[in-house]
Every structure is written in structure tokens, then in C-alpha cells.
Design a protein that fits this description.
The strands form two sheets. This protein has a six-stranded mixed beta sheet, with helices on both faces. A two-stranded antiparallel sheet has the order 7-8. The protein has helices at about 5-15, 25-30, 35-45, 55-110, 115-165, 190-200, 210-220, 225-235, 265-280, 285-290, 305-320, 320-330, 350-355, 380-390, 410-425, 430-440, 450-455; strands at about 250, 255-260, 335-340, 345-350, 360-365, 370, 395, 400-405. The protein has about 450 residues and is an alpha+beta fold. Strand 3 (about 335-340) and strand 4 form a beta hairpin.
């Protein structure tokens, strides 16, 4: 079996896991006609002015309670329908992504010569294709497992509502110390948690970095509907943040979180951690950095949103080689990497081979910004110090780094470097290198066009 045939066989097995036919939607659950008619009948059956007294009052209480139960069942039906729709979107999206990988591999394979050398050239093509297939299956399974957990939670709510209808809901342990009402010591529900629960996007407790995400949103004044949209479109659950567990959190002067990745972190985990660091922080503080006296930002800050999360995902997809290959390259050559609030990686240190990949204040390769501090005593500690200082650092004569005299805000520098990541994504590997080398010639006479596009002030060139 050739390497290409091996890929097609593996691809077919992965595609089979997504089934055939059009995925079932949640439309039947969201059509609440029968429940609406029941609600109307109950409303019409309320006591009128011609009926009063003790019996009338008792009947009115029972009628009101039944109308409330019907409304709650209708809400649960709609939430169930939303989850089924989510599952259908995951299945359809997984199928489309797998089809795109297959097309890319076959198109690339068609361009290699039909000889022994061509078979060797197929190896990295097939390797990338298999990696993409594995990522798609793993991501889709994770999302479907999350949806299944949510559906089980809704099922429990159905059961609880049924128990209440049969008179089993008002148990003594559901009441406060005086047995006459809810526990007054229970803290009020966070408005972000409430919005997520109402949307059927959160069932269990908000803990760990998921809880910190909601706290950051409140601190920054992000509207709850923005958080709900991010959670819905990008399937953010408490499990989404687990990739950050085991990584060392380092905070900057503004309280933003960076994560120092342990040696041996895979490219796939680095990619997920970079994205979730952006999600967690609810913003980059780029605009805030530009409001300092005497400072001029080159661009307006892009608001934190579901669209911006998608843009970062698209950029990561285009620059996937920097995760699949370069994370291991930096790690294997003695460098260290950490995630940033911009949804990319920052690193430094390493051996002489690694030193070749950074110059000036630093160089960005795909989604990795390598600070040009090549021979620090402790690369991990150097990264911690950079983040805690909140400013750009530059190489010193002893191989260690030191804060720059220009006191360039780190948030501005990372914005500049993330613009370079966008250039890599837009131009492709060879396209970027060709454009940057050409720009070096132009730079003799005027500003380097690639640096100008990334922001000359933000990059410390002015």
C-alpha cells in the first residue's frame, strides 16, 4: 500500500464515524404549538369575576402553578432543540473539514512527480493530512461529548420538573435554616452564569479557568451576550480550559494571564492553549497601552468577540505548520515557549541553531514570536520577567535580556507581532519569506512595507 493509499484508507475510516445522510435537527423540539395551546386553555380557564371564594382562590393557585410548569417544559424543549442543532452543526462541520483535507492532499499529491522521489515528497503531505484528520476527529468528539453532557443535564431537569409536578420536589433539604424558604446564605447567581445557563450552554458549576473567564468578562465590562455568543459559536465549556491545567500562569501588570508551557507540550496542545488564552483574557489591552502619555498606537483595537475568536482560529489553521513543526523544534533545541493574550506564542532561548531564527528585537515565524534573547541563564525565568514587567526586552551583552530603554509596552509589541502572524497566514510560508526579503531591499530607501503594515510605532521602529 502506498502512502497515499494509506491516507485514503485512514480518511475513509474517519469519515465513516460521522455517519451518512442529513443530520437530525432540533426543530421538532423547538416547535411548541401543543404546549402553547395548553397554555392558552389554562389561561382561559382562570376564575372570572362570577366565581369567587375559597374554592375559586384554591383553583386559581393550582391553575397558575400548572401554567408555570407548562412554560418550564416549553423552555426545556427549546433548550434541547438547541443542543441537537449544535450536534448537527458539529457533524456537518466535521464532514466538511474532512472533505477539505482530502481535497488538499489529493491536489498536492497530483503535483509531485510519479517516481521514487515523488513518493518521498508525498510523505510530508500525507503526514500533515493525517494530523489534520486526527485533529478534526478529536475536536468533533470533544464537542459532541460536551453536547451529550449538556443534554443529560437537561434530561435531569425534565425529571426534576416531573417530580415537582407529582409533589416530590419540595423536600425539606431544599429549604433554608428556618424551613420556610430558600437558603438566604446562598450567593446570588452571577449574571454571566445565568445568561449561559439560560442559553443551555452551562449546566455544572463554573470553576477553574472557566470561572476566571467570566470574572475577566465582568471586570472588563464585556456584555453577557458576547460571552454567550462566543460559547455558542465556538463550543466553549469548562472542559475547553483544561488544556491550561498544568501550565504555569504568569500575570502581567494589568492582570492578564500568560501560560508558560512545560517542555514536551505537543503542537496540538500549544495551539489550543494559545486560543484559550485569548478567550480567557477577554481582551489584549492594546487600546489601553495606546492611551499612555506620548504614545501613539498604529491601529484601533479590535473588540473582543466571537468573530475575533474565529479570526484567530483561521489564522492558526493557516499557520498550522508553526504548531505541528516549530513547537517541537524550539523545545528540542532548548528554547521555551509561552502563550499570550493575543492567541499566539512567545519564546526565547535555545542553542546556536535556534539562535538563527531571531534577529533585532525578535522575529515571528507563523504563530510564534521568538524574542531575540538567545543565551539567557534561564529561558523560562526570562519569559516570566518579561511578562511581569509589561514592556519589551532586548538582548544584553551577557546573553540575558533587559527592559528596553524605549519602555515599549508589551501589549503593543505583541499586537505588532500578531500582525506579522496574519501576514504569514495571508501570504503562505514561501510568500512571506519572499516578500520580507524583498522588503529588506526596499528598506534601504524607505520603510520596510511588511513592518509598516504591522505598525512601525507598535514595533518600536519609531
Amino acid at each position: 500500500m502506498s502512502v497515499l493509499e494509506g491516507f485514503l484508507s485512514t480518511w475513509a475510516e474517519a469519515r465513516a464515524t460521522f455517519g451518512q445522510g442529513v443530520p437530525q435537527t432540533g426543530e421538532p423540539f423547538k416547535t411548541d404549538g401543543p404546549l402553547s395551546r395548553v397554555q392558552s386553555h389554562l389561561t382561559a380557564a382562570t376564575p372570572g369575576s362570577s366565581w369567587s371564594g375559597t374554592a375559586s382562590a384554591a383553583y386559581d393557585v393550582a391553575n397558575t402553578e400548572q401554567r408555570g410548569k407548562v412554560a418550564e417544559f416549553a423552555t426545556l424543549d427549546r433548550r434541547m432543540g438547541e443542543q441537537i442543532d449544535r450536534a448537527a452543526r458539529v457533524v456537518a462541520g466535521g464532514r466538511n473539514d474532512l472533505d477539505a483535507v482530502r481535497t488538499w492532499v489529493l491536489d498536492a499529491a497530483a503535483k509531485v512527480p510519479q517516481n521514487v522521489a515523488g513518493q518521498q515528497m508525498l510523505v510530508p503531505i500525507v503526514k500533515r493530512g493525517l494530523s489534520d484528520v486526527a485533529d478534526i476527529v478529536k475536536r468533533s468528539n470533544g464537542e459532541l461529548n460536551s453536547i451529550a453532557t449538556t443534554i443529560r443535564g437537561i434530561g435531569n431537569e425534565y425529571s426534576a420538573l416531573g417530580d415537582q409536578k407529582r409533589g416530590k420536589g419540595d423536600q425539606p433539604d431544599k429549604f433554608g435554616p428556618d424551613k420556610n424558604g430558600p437558603d438566604s446564605d446562598k450567593p446570588p447567581e452571577n449574571k454571566y452564569e445565568k445568561a449561559l445557563r439560560d442559553a443551555g450552554l452551562l449546566n455544572g458549576p463554573a470553576e477553574g479557568y472557566y470561572k476566571k473567564w467570566l470574572e475577566n468578562a465582568e471586570r472588563r465590562g464585556v456584555p453577557p451576550e458576547v460571552i454567550v455568543e462566543i460559547a455558542r459559536r465556538h463550543h466553549i465549556t469548562p472542559d475547553s480550559f483544561k488544556v491550561l491545567d498544568g501550565m504555569e500562569e504568569v500575570t502581567d501588570p494589568d492582570g492578564k494571564s500568560y501560560f508558560l508551557m512545560p517542555k514536551g507540550t505537543s503542537g496540538a496542545d500549544a495551539r489550543r492553549a494559545a486560543l484559550m488564552t485569548y478567550v480567557l483574557n477577554c481582551g489584549t489591552d492594546y487600546d489601553k497601552a495606546g492611551r499612555q502619555p506620548g504614545v501613539t498606537n498604529d491601529f484601533k483595537e479590535t473588540p473582543y468577540s466571537a468573530d475575533e475568536v474565529q479570526r484567530i482560529i483561521d489564522r492558526q489553521n493557516a499557520n498550522s505548520w508553526s504548531y505541528d513543526q516549530d513547537v517541537g523544534f524550539v523545545d528540542g533545541n532548548g528554547g521555551r515557549l509561552m502563550t499570550t493574550p493575543n492567541g499566539m506564542l512567545m519564546g526565547l532561548g535555545g542553542n546556536q541553531l535556534q539562535d538563527m531564527y531571531s534577529e533585532g528585537g525578535g522575529s515571528t515565524w507563523g504563530d510564534i514570536f521568538m524574542v531575540n534573547i538567545d543565551d539567557p541563564t534561564d529561558a523560562a525565568d526570562q519569559l516570566r520577567k518579561i511578562v511581569k514587567s509589561g514592556v519589551a526586552w532586548y538582548p544584553g551583552p551577557d546573553g540575558n535580556g533587559y527592559p528596553g530603554a524605549n519602555q515599549l509596552d508589551l501589549d503593543r509589541l505583541l499586537h505588532h507581532e500578531e500582525r506579522h502572524s496574519q501576514q504569514w497566514a495571508r501570504m503562505g510560508y514561501l510568500g512571506f519569506i519572499d516578500a520580507y526579503v524583498t522588503g529588506k531591499v526596499i528598506e534601504i530607501f524607505t520603510d520596510h512595507p511588511m513592518e509598516k503594515d504591522a505598525g512601525l510605532h507598535d514595533g518600536g521602529y519609531r
